[in-house]
Amino acid sequence: MERREIRNAQLDQGWMTLAGIVLVIVGLLGFVNNPLVGSAPGALVATDSVHNLVHIVTGLIALYIAFGLRGLTQANATIGFGVLYVIIFVAVLISPTLFGLFSVRANTAVHLIHAVLAIVSLAVGYVARSSMLEAPAA
């Protein structure tokens, strides 16, 4: 394995670890009355119970990608995670209540988080994958 390939794999694992931990924490915080996350008026990140569960589940998926997968499979899964968040971003942008599934309308912070998760996951996944595909066969 080349050094660049190793660094990109570490970047991939690091990003998915960070995304997973943050999503799980945000999901759990949403169940506790606080000014950062939840359905309280003026919460920075507006969520409800269903949205909190989505954050926890996608956070666990990200952690599985970080620690359960390796190599090209991990890079492709990171790209898939980015695609998932592109779909989530577009769907919640079109319907801030996700077509009635959420009781709290998504706010700007939610849209920004979804966009960052999508863009960074796609970028990191493609960088990791390209370095693996370019590596000479042993």
Explain this structure to me?
This protein is mainly alpha-helical and 138 residues long. The chain is built from four helices and two strands, in the order αββααα. The chain has helices at 3-29, 49-68, 71-94, 108-134; strands spanning 37-38, 45-46. A two-stranded parallel ribbon has the order 1-2. The longest helix has 27 residues, at 3-29. The radius of gyration is 16 Å and the shape is elongated. The mean pLDDT is 92.
Give the termini distance in whole angstroms. Answer: 9 Å
- Helicity, as a percent range: over 70%
Structural class based on helices, strands and sheet pairing: mainly alpha
Tally of structural domains: 1
Largest sheet: 2 strands, parallel
Globular, elongated, flat, extended or rod-shaped: what is the shape?
Answer: elongated
Rg from alpha-carbon coordinates? 16 Å
How do the strands line up in the largest sheet? 1-2
* Count of alpha/pi helices: 4
Q: What is the average per-residue confidence, as pLDDT, rounded to a whole number?
A: 92
> What would you call the quaternary organization?
single chain
Query: Which H/E pattern describes the elements?
Result: HEEHHH
DSSP strand content: under 5%
